[in-house]
Amino acid sequence: MRLSEDDSHALAGAPAAPTYLEDGTTVMSWLNTRDHKRVGVMFLVSVILFFFLGGLFALLIRFKLLQPGPFFLDALGYNRMFTLHGVVMIFLFLIPSIPSAFGNFVLPLMLGARDVAFPRLNLFSYYLYLAGAVLAILAMIQGGADTGWTFYTPYSSTTATQVLPVLLGVFILGFSSILTGLNFIVTVHTLRAPGLSWMRLPLFVWGIYGTSIIQVLATPVIGITVLIVAVERVGGFGLFDPARGGDPVLFQHMFWFYSHPAVYIMVLPGMGVISETVAAFSRKNPFGYKAIAMSSLGIAFVGFFTWGHHMFVAGQSTFNAGAFGILSMFVGVFTAIKVFNWVGTMYRGAISFKTPFAYICGFLYFIVFGGMTGVALATTSLDIHWHDTYFVVAHFHFIMVGASVMAFLAALHYWFPKMFGRMYPEGWGLVAASLIILGFNATFIPQFLLGNFGMPRRYYQYPEHFQALNVASTAGATLLGFGFLIILIYMTIALRYGQRSEANPWGSKGFEWLTASPPPTHNFDEIPTITQMPHDYRTHEPPGVIRVA
Amino acid sequence: MNEVLRRLLFLPDQASTFARDVDRLHYFVIITTFIMSTAVGLTAIFFFVRYRRRSETQTTPHIEPALWMEALFVGTPLIFFTLWFFLGFREFVRQQTPPSDSMDVYVMGKKWMWKFAYPDGPNSINVLRVPAGRNVRLLMTSRDVIHSFYVPEFRIKQDVLPGRYTQTWFNATMPGRYQILCAEYCGAGHSIMRGEVIVLKPQEYENWLAFQHRGLVATQDAQPTALDFAPPLGNMVDQGRRIAAEQGCLKCHTTDGTRHIGPTWLDLYLRRERLNDGSIVVADEAYLTESMMDPALKVVEGFQPVMPSFQGKLAGPEVAALVEYIKSLQSDAVRIGPSEGPAYAPIRGR
Amino acid sequence: MSPEAASLPEGILAHHFASLERQNEAMRLGMWLFLATEILLFAGLFTGYSVYRFEFPLAFAECSRHLSLTAGTVNTIVLITSSFTVALSIHFARTDQRRAAVVCLALTILLALGFLGIKAIEYTAHFREHALPGKYYAFEEVKIPGAAMFYTLYFMMTGLHGLHVVAGMSVLTWLLWRTNQGRYSSRYYTGLELGGLYWHLVDLVWIFLYPLLYLI
Q1: Nearest residue to A380 (alpha-carbon basis) of A307, A315, A322
Q2: Least CB-CB distance to C148: which of A189, A220, A238?
Q3: Which of A22, A67, A127, B297 is 20 to 30 A away from residue A520, measured at CA?
């Protein structure tokens, strides 16, 4: 290949190829890059920014809820706040977080590829994300929408707030998500290194692959759904408007057909991260590799047939409720398989308790509790009491924050040296991790109880007997906020002043560590040949060989 | 046991036949969840302590789970989850199927209040009176957006949709007062869209019903419950009703359409009235307010100018409450909107 | 570099693909996935159609009878022919007959224009009759509940399809320009092939719209 021709004389003792960070330092060299690693880093910075924005909204919501009566915000302001919190966290943070940021960076490295299949499309996907974000911000400046992120009709087609730009933003973000997913599927199919058979794929790749299938197949449906609502607002077409013979429940079906699988877009990559890190820090091969890999696909598949469990009390037939109920149980079974295998991976391993491992522990606890409360919610008769109460809010925050964000943080700490060639401060890392896990429990366990107690979600004012639990939850949220802030501070410092790390500081045998840290522009001078399963710690040999001509 | 767990889990009182059964399943599910998450957590901690990394160059054996182990991993959750499902679904079907001897109450939700109408009796706003120990079926629809009828103590909830009817039922066991909450987000007043179920002893309920049927409009529901927690928005109508009773409005104006000393208030709002001088006036808010302050100015044809002025007797908010009350008196209290009528025939006996 | 790749014009084989076959395979897979998303985009509207057809069978049948069957049928023939010409142009490109390929592409674009023209005539008629969606519906001849819903779906489905026709035409114009430059030949014609695939999808969607809206 071209590269090897140029480099053949330079191999002996010549300075190493420039890392992707050094290859062009102008702003344009970033904005116009085709390098999947730079696109990944740009996504990472953007999603972190939006995470803190969404977090700020969350804290404002919690602050208002200190008092049962009107306080700090008015009703409309409060409603806008939780809508923005939902929209920002779901569409601008969670959906792109692990796939677009870490997936982009790590997936080609794991496959032994020089880039994703369509690098230009990849950059375009980032700009679509930015465009969607700009529309969402525009809506915020104009006053924001007050529909909740679920946009239920006919409320969303009649309310006077700025729903339209938010809907268009969601539509565009959907396209960004589709293109990322499409790119990853094609990359996994066509750019695997020699020796990297399907049954040797790293588990993170399996997670991302399952995610991408959902992104490609489910996202167009939300696209058309929000378009119909937009047309309805502008033109009064009445497809979901009961006054014109339309059916508002049809909206819910179409909305959840995307938005339930979207939950797995958010959590499957996180499960992939945990599968990688638990093996790396236990220094053990993944227990039940096939079971973990196949359950990712199982979740992606069954996830398409469970949407009706959001509508047990929305007026669908009893038969539907039963069918969706039992199908939802299977997702629980698939998740349970993963959990048992993760714990099994630790068996007879060599565990080192670094910051990512703290997040793994948090993740395991949160996903078991969050997952099982999810199965409990799918138990139809119990859902009647819990539906749309704080119990649901606590359940999905256990999955979205407890599982996905913990995995995001584990990934951030695990791959930080890979991405930037520097280490984060271990001590501060553990402090922040304990603060976050503690604060998280303090925030959301009271919310489970609030839900039992009967407090519906999206309540601006609430009866006074709910106050004590609300205050507890707000206190926990403050702690949680501090935890995240500490990470932001030490990571920013470590970017510049962190201790230089080795190429493989964890001694990990994941394939992404086969190249230098940070990797050179085209990842590998020569494509490696994979010789082992990922994370095989029986020997110290690297998992692949790089033949030098 | 039941009581301890109920308090521990912050569950509200069990005030319907359904509540007790649901809670039993609830305890089972939560206890399994706790046992499972603790077991996973303890195993992880044990492995962590037992298999700490001893040297930086340590290698580990390659371990694959045996088939029986994978079967166990799949089987255990599958058995538990299907068990939960079947127990839960049995209850769910029961909850979705109202018994044939239920008494019906029509419910209409709108931003941001609840209206209740008994097929053969009175209407009421935000207050639902039912007898204890009797099956009550609610036939519900919404006038604007989606609402959800939720009574935590009964463990029932059902979305209320515009353009179609949904139903739910309950059998209240304990006389008392229980809050109705709206559980589907419906706008600025969502969190104050609250009402109250008053469960009466059967005899008291009969008395109340008989009282309503006596047709004495002046005393009809003359002392509505003070809704200490009820919202100002929904409450305005109820306040209006109370003020109307206190100020004696109902001595001359009926609310059921019959002619009395003054024009009836039923359907008065936005009615085109012909006046004594032959002109037409639309009974909007302005006209209603004006008529309270200066009743002799525009008298409806066929009535005598006998009404006293209430200038200075009614405060601003009280006038507003009265107007709201009059606005709420629409004869098609439940059947508004595009739908053709109840989707369910009333079920009385067999 | 393999000899086969070396003989290609500059910039066709991207640096991260080992061979041209691999790259073609990737491009085809990507296109098929994209087509899948397009079908799911329409699937939302098809779902809406089935739900409301079930709810208002009479109105849908009646409204369907008021659409111009001739216009629909002619448009179907026009689109199928255009699919044929685009397939021909790929055939000519891979057998190195550049002029014929260009002519076929130009024909395809003309046929697409013809389709849009006929659609525009139909739309004008609807506007004149006030057979319009939702709250604008004031068609004198059909006054059954649900008629407005039919026109809502009719306009959304054909409108979205029309947008796809326009997008397809832009793609074809770009391909025409590149074919004329001699970019596609027996050695490399994947780009043209993918454009053709997209056009077949546009055609395929219409094949479903035509019976749903005009025939049944």
Answers
A1: A322
A2: A238
A3: A127
- Which tokens in the block code for residue B309? 């002025």
Q: For position A311, what pLDDT does the model report?
A: 92
Which one of A187, A224, A253 has the shortest CB-CB distance to C45?
A224
pLDDT digits (tens, 9 = 90+) for A117-165: 999 999 999 999 999 999 988 888 888 889 989 999 888 888 888 899 9
Average pLDDT over residues B271-275: 82
Quote the radius of gyration of chain B (alpha carbons, Å).
28
Residue C27 CA to residue A206 CA, distance in Å, equals 21
Interchain CB distance below 8 Å, C134 and A221: no
User: In chain C, what residues touch A115 (CB-CB under 8 Å)?
Assistant: 14-16
Q: How far apart are CA C195 and CA B169, in angstroms?
A: 58
Does residue C29 belong to the interface with chain A, where contact is any CB pair within 8 Å? yes
Q: Which two tokens stand for residue C118?
A: 């006929």
Residue C117 lies in a domain: yes
Predicted confidence at residue B346, as pLDDT, reads: 39
pLDDT of residue A374: 92
Query: Could you tell me if C38 and A220 are in contact, meaning their C-beta atoms sit under 8 angstroms apart?
Result: yes
Domain topology for A38-545: Cytochrome C Oxidase; Chain A (1.20.210)
Chains that touch C (3 or more CB pairs under 8 A): A
Q: Does the residue C140 lie in any domain?
A: yes
Which DSSP symbol is given to C96?
T
Token duo for residue C75: 């448009």
- The CATH number covering residue C76 comes to 1.20.120.80
The predicted complex's ipTM stands at 0.90
At residue C55 the predicted structure's pLDDT band, cuts being 50, 70 and 90, is confident
* Nearest partner of C208 among C38, C33, C29, judged by Cα: C38
If you count residue pairs, one on A and one on C, with CB atoms under 8 Å apart, how many are there? Answer: 126
Mutant choice from A4, A23, A224 vs C, greatest count of C C-beta within 10 A: A224
Q: With beta carbons under 8 A apart, name residues in chain C contacting A253.
A: 47
| Terminal C-alpha separation, chain A | 11
Look at residue C142 in the predicted model and tell me its pLDDT.
80
The percent of chain A in helix, strand and coil, each rounded to the nearest 5, is 70, 0, 30
Mean pLDDT of A304-326: 91
Query: CB-based contact (8 Å) between B184 and chain A?
Result: yes
- Window B:250-289, CB contacts with A under 8 Å: none
Q: Is residue C139 part of a domain?
A: yes
Burial class (CB within 10 angstroms; exposed 0-12, middle 13-18, buried 19+) of A366: buried
B188, A284: Cβ pair inside 8 Å? no
- Cα separation of A447 and A396, whole Å? 11
Instruction: Give the pLDDT of residue A298.
Output: 93
Indicate the average pLDDT of chain B: 81
Beta bridge partners of A545: A529
Which chain C positions have a beta carbon within 8 Å of A254's beta carbon?
A: 44, 47
Window 62-121 of C: residues touching A by CB (8 A cutoff) are: none
pLDDT classification of B327: cutoffs 50, 70, 90: confident
Ordered DSSP codes for A469-505: HHHHHHHHHHHHHHHHHHHHHHHHHHHHHSPBP-SST
Surface of C (153-182) touching A: CB under 8 A: 153, 155-156, 160
Question: Which pLDDT belongs to residue B207?
Answer: 87
- Residue B270, pLDDT score: 80
User: Residue C23 is encoded by which pair of tokens?
Assistant: 């790259």
| Neighbour-count burial of B282, counting CB atoms closer than 10 A to its CB (0-12 exposed, 13-18 middle, 19+ buried) | exposed
The whole-number pLDDT of residue C7 equals: 55
Between helices A355-378 and A426-453, what is the axis angle to 10°? Answer: 10
Give SS3 for A161: coil
Chain B partners within 8 Å of A391 (Cβ): none
Q: Residue B40: which of A248, A329, A339 has the nearest Cβ?
A: A339
